[in-house]
């Protein structure tokens, strides 16, 4: 309570001060009889309009991403911050410039000033704070002034009206559609994409696949025309993608191990024992134990130790990260090249003594350097001769020691096909890697094209080859494959498939169609969550599934066990639900569960159940689990232990790893129905809480107090954490927090249903006793079961060892002594006795 008072008084105080600032500006207004736009432009001319935080990270040698996302949102707090900025943080030039611009727009109807004001308030340019209502009013004014002829400004306005800027202005779908149409007819690409997405999904417009296809195809052709023929056919430019789902930095929407959607964060810093380690072990017959230095950066310090393995591998990965650019570091091909040249110079003398692992990475160094010379990035122009030497060397040394193929085959193929004019040699190189992981689709793409040009070469079905190129996410391949489907090559045509393929192609070209995704990420790093939200909202309208998740996540982060449910406005909640729902329709199953959880937290249980049911039809274990929970506790449905039981058991079919957690819950459930039978209480009394027993609502008071303070969830991504993430431990599914069970309405209903409310049975007395101790009965039961299981395992373990069974506890094998005794004659009989025990932290 104290907090709220302090905050309230503080706001009142600021308001007075702010009023003075504003009156200073308006004092100027009366004196000005000319348009001060030029003055404002002069002030701003030497200021930084947009600060790219990603660049900042690289320059300051900061490693690791540090993103802070506020969990709660309140208008009051936003306004408080806004006023605080103008009171104490704004510089003199900021105040002056905005004053002049405001006069220029308000008094002199200056279009340029009006647009600039809209952008300043929308994107937080020049370090101004985001203010959605002002942004909308200036953007609307600008559009009216110029008669709705600026496609980009119209698109922005349409996005504003379709999202309502998350509560800042009223949503107006009709107007927004009108503006999308108008912007599209002016040739705005984003608006076309947004419209296509709406037609494809029947979102506020009648579903019309042909319309969607028309728009998607038109856009794709436009994007295609931005590539030169050399780029398109030979060397596609490298794309730095920021098309990410924010929660993927933390293991996905549902958390590590439970999210069913593939991670979108593909450009993290390389963790040294990479995915390639499985490849390496295969190479060396599974014998090698990789010991990479975790503190990778200090390899120079302990120079003498014989971990030259680490050094070479580390050099390669350092160069690779510089080459590809990571989320916290811009690409720096020149530095990558320098490092690779150095690595090759230092290590070539020891090449004859290298083991397979070193040779493998040495070959990769040669490939990457060759590739850089081939593309000519980071140097003035391509050096094909040098590239060829390096690439051939890579192939020689890698393929000499193992069956693994070098990616250099692809570049060698391209060089031979397009520069040396030696098609047959090129085909040999392509075929070399056709079935390999290193093939990024280029080999299939080129072979497909060659095959349609020269069918006499018998290179295979061009359609099938192009399809594989698309499946390997080859950009040009995706476009050509979409074209093939559209022309019904192979007698196959589907409007949905074709428009989906063009949509995929467009999203691969995010640099062209959605450059704001990079800005969104940069704003996240700066902590400007609201600006990031705006940028993600644009991309979400364009139909980017990842952006829909990111926008939804910024609006509403699902609470995990023991966490507070976010405090935010209803507009934001419903927008979050809408985004999660759209992402679900684009096959993100996790999103449906989160949408269900938001409904659950809003106590809209029937809608929550509907969401869980949609997700359970796609076999999402968590959704099935939650359904079980709803039936167990009678939320939105009648209490039905049998249904609950069935749902919990179903989880096992889809995720056997949850065996123990499920069994425990089912046992608890059995016990529960047993107790409820004993106490002669047909309906669950489980939902009773302190509020009812004491007759005082302690919890809600606490909640009120908490809601006055903003809670921040802070997460830091670093290499160490990535290593931890890779260690892959499981968590108990956390469908809903214990506290949330307490639902007043539910209780009241139950109270009425009770025949004899005064008669408290011994069971309820027992529960009250536990409650006084600050425990819930479920906790007590859990503890009892855990203790029991521990005891049992303590007894069983020596038994196992004596019997020689193969038992795994949490994945760690406890070997019986059969092996030691040399009794290996009956392995077949040992097999069925395998036991897998898993413990879960609850
Ligand atoms: C960043 O690191 C590089 C190499 O470690 C060094 O040369 C450079 O001076 C550093 N830059 C800053 C701003 O510290
Ligand atoms: C936006 O600016 C207006 C006018 O200065 C102000 O009244 C409002 O509180 C601001 N909105 C926010 C969210 O800060
Ligand atoms: C600015 O535009 C508004 C609305 O279009 C109009 O009412 C006003 O007279 C204009 N002011 C000037 C100075 O042209
Ligand atoms: C390939 O391996 C053989 C021995 O296995 C060796 O003699 C030869 O020099 C190697 N070639 C290259 C290019 O490394
Ligand atoms: C490439 O070789 C073919 C014959 O193999 C020839 O017809 C063609 O003119 C050559 N093209 C160039 C650019 O040298």
UniProtKB/TrEMBL annotation:
Keyword Transferase attributed: no
Transmembrane portions of the chain: 780-800
Residues covered by region (Disordered): 729-757
UniProt KW keywords: Membrane, Signal, Transmembrane, Transmembrane helix
Annotated signal sequence range: 1-19
Coiled coil, from the record: none
InterPro entries xrefs: Sel1-like (IPR006597), Sel1_AlgK (IPR050767), TPR-like_helical_dom_sf (IPR011990)
Basic and acidic residues bias: start-end ranges: 740-757
Family, per entry: Belongs to the sel-1 family.
Name under which the protein is recorded: ERAD-associated E3 ubiquitin-protein ligase component HRD3
Organism: Tetrapisispora phaffii (strain ATCC 24235 / CBS 4417 / NBRC 1672 / NRRL Y-8282 / UCD 70-5)
Phylogenetic placement of the source organism: Eukaryota, Fungi, Dikarya, Ascomycota, Saccharomycotina
